[in-house]
Structure formats: C-alpha cells, structure tokens
TrEMBL record:
Residues 68-214 form the Tim44-like domain. It is found in: Membrane. Residues 30-60 are annotated as: Disordered. This is Tim44-like domain protein. It comes from uncultured Sphingosinicella sp. GO terms for molecular function: protein-folding chaperone binding.
C-alpha cells in the first residue's frame, strides 16, 4: 500500500481539515459557474438545475453528476453566494495543497490547513518518517477529473462529495537520497472521494473535510 493511500485512510479517521483559504479561490482554470436568473433585491431564486443537463467544464468533463443536481439547487437556494465551479476549483487546490504539505513534511502549512486530531496524525506520521531517515519525493502529476458526485442539504448543513481521479508519482528516499521505494517514472492512478461540510449562514465560513474514501 503506497503512502498516499495510507494518508487518505488516516484522514478518514479524523475530522477537521479547514479549507476556506482555498475553497472559493480561483486559479485561472475555472469552470463555468451554475447560472442564476436575476433576482429582485431582497429575494432569493434557485436556478432550474433539476431541469437542466449537468454543467460541463471547458474540457468536457462533468462538474456534477445528475444525482447531485437536487442537492446543489437546495444549497444555492439557501446561500445564493455559493458558486459550484468556484467551489470545485477550490477543492482541487485544497486536494493538491494538503497532499503536498504532507509529502514535504511542512508542519506550518499543515497547521494552516488542519487542526486537532487530524493535525496530530499528520505530525505523527511525519515524525515517524523522519525517525526512519526517509523523505517523500512524491508529485501530483495531474488531476484528471474532479466531479461532484453528491450534494445534500439537511437543515442548514450542506454536504458535498467530490471524486478526484489523479495521477501521483510516489518515491521514498533514504538519508543519502537513494530511492528505497517507488518511481517518478511511473505515476499511480488514484481515485479518491472527499466529502466537505459547512453550516450555511454560520459565522464560520470554513468548509471541513469530514470523510475520505477510495472510489
């Protein structure tokens, strides 16, 4: 089992990654947002997502699956500032940042992205790696596909599940810099499902990563 799969399984045991810094940030590769009709000031109008085909990115990939349309409509109706494409773009940035911070052993960056037990778990894993004299030379080669598989609104709690299909090159080196496992020449295809949650209308604007799984 490679290190990134161990990482994702470990993250699934703990809740609390804070992603506001990247969720909502645009990177210059945005997908087209879900359009809304013009609203009269003081009113909120949900877009007709249930009657529309799933939005597609410029590359032709789905932004969300058909089964997520009803949940997205409910979330947009409850929070008209929510933008599907911006969220998904930010989620991809968060996916990259979290993995890269762990691979580099960047405790400061992880402290910015994680808290509580999940931060302790990251730090413990880094400690064990350093004690063994190992360094990770992993690289996220590409995110081939990111799509919202499910979206729900229960009360004021919004939950969005995103599937990431990515290629990762994983290498472990010893203190001398010699490769002891993996290869940068052969990227491994990974298929991860991350679920984010936020209470709409709360003072806390952060989305929390509450679950991860393998597709």
């Amino acid at each position: 089992m490679n290190i990134e799969i161990v990482l994702l399984a470990m993250v699934a045991l703990f809740v609390g990654l804070r992603l506001y810094a990247v969720l909502g940030r645009r990177t210059g590769h945005e997908q087209q947002p879900v359009t809304r009709p013009e609203a009269v000031p003081g009113t909120e109008t949900a877009p007709p997502l249930a009657d529309a085909a799933p939005e597609r990115s410029e590359g032709g990939g789905l932004v969300y699956e058909d089964g997520a349309a009803g949940g997205i409509r409910a979330i947009v109706a409850a929070d008209n500032s929510f933008d599907v494409a911006r969220f998904l773009d930010g989620a991809q940035g968060a996916y990259r940042m979290i993995l890269e911070a762990f691979w580099k052993g960047d405790r400061q960056e992880l402290a910015y992205l994680a808290s509580g037990d999940v931060l302790a778990a990251f730090n413990q894993s880094i400690d064990e790696r350093e004690a063994a004299g190992h360094k990770l030379d992993n690289r996220l080669v590409s995110i081939e596909r990111a799509v919202i598989e499910d979206a729900r609104l229960e009360g004021r709690d919004a939950t969005i599940t995103v599937r990431f299909d990515a290629d990762i090159a994983a290498v472990t080196r010893n203190e001398a810099g010699e490769v002891v496992a993996g290869s940068l020449e052969d990227a491994v295809s990974t298929h991860d499902i991350w679920t984010f949650r936020r209470t709409l209308g709360s003072q806390d604007p952060n989305w929390a990563l509450v679950d991860t799984d393998e597709a």
